[in-house]
Amino acid sequence: MATIGSRFHHIGLVKVENKAHWQQRKSIGGIRSYKLLTIEWSISKEGNSVITNEWRYPPVTANKSFNLETTPPPAFRAFRYSYKRHVIDVKKLDLDEWIPLDNEFPRYHAAKVARLADRGDKIVGTLPCATDAARELCQDLAEYLSARYPQVYHVTRSASDKDGWDGQGSISRVEMPSLGASYDLVNDDNMTVAGLLQPTDLNILTKLPDGQYQLSAVMFGIGGGQRLKDKLGRCLADLHFGGQVPHFKEQLQAPLDRFLSKLKVDSPIVRHTTALSIHDELHWPEITMGPEDDWDPVIRGPAVGSKGAATFKPPQPVSDISSIWFRQERQTLRRLPKSGAIVWSVHTYITPITSILDEPGIPGRLASLIRSWDDELAAHKGRDLYAGVLLPHLDALHLEQVKAGVCEDEPMALPNFPF
After folding, report:
1. What is the 3-class SS of the chain, one letter each residue?
2. Contact 330/199 with Cβ under 8 angstroms?
3. How far is the C-alpha of 61 from the C-alpha of 79, rounded, in Å?
4. Which domain of life, per UniProt (predicted)?
5. Beta strand pairing status for 295-296 and 301-302?
């Protein structure tokens, strides 16, 4: 057994040792694999007594108040009053809140089922290097969801192993009676099942020999304008460059690489992103991108010579506030304890922009943010499609709130980045 990162603490004359241990598994094809073991503190006069146990997901608190028909989506308003540079805004994830459900889940589940029937292996795929991680993810989701929402999920366990949480048998089947759904975790595709069990899109990142992270498994049941053929098997840097993410190289690439390399099994994170759009499409917005199968990621539109190129007309700026939608993403990143892969979940929330503008400080903060984007970021976010009608409306609402004493007329005084 190898030992990495020994730390010693002294309490009086008693030495306390905390080490990170890796247990070597059998060698397959000349490639060694290791299993991460966590440490329980052990105190002895000799200072060499250390008890190791495989990391376990902490006990999950059942959400007894959850109701699949009445629990509303969370009201995330995670945007600043101005943009200066890209930063990786993250918070430590409460493991009880890994995958929140709300009354929109039945709609999302139905949308995923329909999209799978239509697109199949064009939206879900797993590279060989991520097979074990996909199986681990599927089991962890089934364990977590059935513990967190017992009123929604019923599980059947294997009687022939003790591979589930807390020494129970692994989960072989999950039933969701309220949705009329049942999934076989032994024989069905793991990424497909994992995606259908809950509302988020799922990505698995595995580490390449050069230290970069590769997108090795995806389930784009919702999608949000993403295609498997453009993403699967590519490293994160290529994904961001290919997606033409503004300022990625100079502002985000190095911090993101450092962040992923340091992400610990017991310290998952959550982050949020904000966007505005002129559609409420969950999957593929033809209004702004053209036909899905004709998309060319280089020119950011239908490929030259495609049928879509001949018929697609770029959208014009909207003239009605009701045509604008507020989109929030809740993303979590969690390192799986057995495979060491990183699971990246993305939950998209879409609501009419008009539904949030009565909230204190929101009109002023949103107007300030939109105006702060530089030309490159504004183009990436499609500002020209909605700013002409939205900004005057936000300004008027902000002045009304100032006059009513709801908020102050100073950007720094506006409520900033609440989750």
Report:
1. CEEEEEEEEEECCEEEEEEEEEEECCCECCECCEEEEEEECEEECCCCCCEEEECCCCCCCCCCCCCCCCCCCCCCCCCCCCCCCCCCCCEECCHHHCCCCCCCHHHHHHHHHHHHHHHHHHCEEECHHHHHHHHHHHHHHHHHHHHHCCCCCEEEECCCCCCCHHHCCCEEEEEEHHHCEEEECCCCCHHHHHHHCCCCEEEEEEECCCCCEEEEEEECCCCCCCCHHHHCCCEHHHHHHHCCCCCHHHHHHHHHHHHHHHCCCCCCEEEEEEEEECCCCCCCCHHHHCCHHHEECCCCEECCCCHHHHHCCCCCCCCCHHHCEEEEEEEEEEECCCCCCEEEEEEEEEEEHHHCCCCCCHHHHHHHHHHHCCHHHHHHCCHHHCHHHHHHHHHHHHHHHHHCCCCCCCHHHCCCCCC
2. no
3. 30
4. Eukaryota
5. antiparallel
Tokens, residue 132: 């074990």
Per-residue confidence (pLDDT) for residue 370, from 0 to 100 = 93
Name the burial class of residue 41, with classes exposed (0-12), middle (13-18) and buried (19+) by CB atoms within 10 angstroms of its CB. exposed
Q: Can you tell me the distance from the alpha carbon of 341 to that of 336, in angstroms, rounded to the nearest whole number? A: 6
Q: Considering Cα of 68, then 140, then 120, then 177, what sign does the dihedral take?
A: negative
Q: Which amino acid is at 43?
A: I
Amino acid (one-letter) located at 327? R
**8 A C-beta contact, residue 295 and residue 303:** yes
Q: 131-168 burial string, b = 16+ CB within 10 Å, else e? A: bbbbbbbbbbbbbbbbbbbeebbebebbeeeeebbeee
Question: What pLDDT is stored for residue 363 in this prediction?
Answer: 94
Residues of the chain with pLDDT under 70: 1-53, 82-88, 240-255, 411-419
Query: Are 17 and 1 a contacting pair, CB within 8 Å?
Result: no
Closest CA to 246 of 417, 382, 384, 68: 382
Q: What is the pLDDT of residues 29-46, one digit of tens each?
A: 333 333 344 433 333 333
What gap in Å lies between CA 243 and CA 320, rounded to an integer?
29
Contact 197, 143 (CB under 8 A): no
- The pLDDT assigned to 11 comes to 31
Q: How far apart are CA 343 and CA 206, in angstroms?
A: 9
- Within 13 A of 366's CA, how many CA atoms are on the CB side? 30
Q: How far apart are CA 414 and CA 397, in angstroms?
A: 14
